[in-house]
Amino acid sequence: AQSVTQLGSHVSVSEGALVLLRCNYSSSVPPYLFWYVQYPNQGLQLLLKYTTGATLVKGINGFEAEFKKSETSFHLTKPSAHMSDAAEYFCAVSERTSYDKVIFGPGTSLSVIP
Amino acid sequence: SQTIHQWPATLVQPVGSPLSLECTVEGTSNPNLYWYRQAAGRGLQLLFYSVGIGQISSEVPQNLSASRPQDRQFILSSKKLLLSDSGFYLCAWSDRVWTQYFGPGTRLLVL
Predict the structure, then answer these.
(1) A44 to chain B: which residues are within 8 Å by CB?
(2) Which member of A85, A106, B41, B74 has the greatest number of CB atoms within 10 A?
């Protein structure tokens, strides 16, 4: 079965600093990969996704992620953190079933320090 | 464009009372639909999914049930709520290419 790990349940960065949120997955076949963001008391919003093609994927709000098959990783980055980036971030991986099953990681809470 | 609605946004219910949460999707047809629960400070737990009208599958045994009476309507129910049913309930739909889109959620507090 698929699994997703996110290193660091809580990450703090200074405003303007690099954001790096780590995600590793287990899969025997190349999966589809996703990053979602959740602001307090809201649903999840899709940040970006990798399906096929270019391994560097650009998303909304200046975020990007790189699919590295050899490392089974899909880390999320942003060059310069903004206060509004403070939120919970979930990495997810598809599982090839009949109903678009997606396995979510446990989440990483990002704090941005002014 | 597609939109997904959930209501109510917040609900406080006594233990033993019934529950009905509703989710509707606009702008798409024949979507896959999902109910997730998110306990405080924890990740997402898939409760139910549906690939069509009247077709419901449960991921975990529990006190809850789901129904899909119409193509774009998904309902989460319980006959008698437990304290452990408290949480944040999220509905999602997918475009059958593995991308799921989430609603705004319902915060349920069982007292």
Answers:
(1) 44, 90, 92, 102
(2) B74
Q: Is the pLDDT of residue B92 over 90?
A: yes
Q: Which residues does chain A have within 8 Å of residue B42's beta carbon, measured at their own beta carbons?
A: 106
Question: A-side interface with B, Cβ within 8 Å?
Answer: 32, 34, 36, 41-46, 49, 51, 90, 94, 98-102, 104-107
Distance from CA of A42 to the nearest CA of B (A): 5
Residue whose structure tokens are 């946004």: B9
**Distance (Å, rounded) from C-alpha A56 to C-alpha B109?**
41
Residue with tokens 């703090």: A12
**Which pair of structure tokens corresponds to residue A90?**
């979930």
Sole residue written with tokens 């999220």 = B90
Q: How many CA atoms, within 13 angstroms, populate the side-chain half-sphere of residue B52?
A: 1
Q: What average pLDDT does this structure show over A72-92?
A: 97
What integer pLDDT is reported at residue A94 of this predicted model? 85
Q: CB B42 to CB A106 under 8 A?
A: yes
Q: What is the mean pLDDT of the segment spanning A39-50?
A: 93
- Tell me what the pLDDT averaged over chain B comes to: 93
Q: How many CA atoms lie within 13 A of B44 on its CB side?
A: 30
Q: Please name the residue of chain A whose CA is at the shortest distance from the CA of residue B55.
A: A99
CA–CA distance from A37 to each of A71, B40, B58 (Å)?
Answer: 23, 16, 26
Phi-psi region at B29: left, alpha or beta (left = phi > 0; alpha = psi -120 to 50): beta
> Beta strand pairing status for A10-14 and A108-113?
parallel
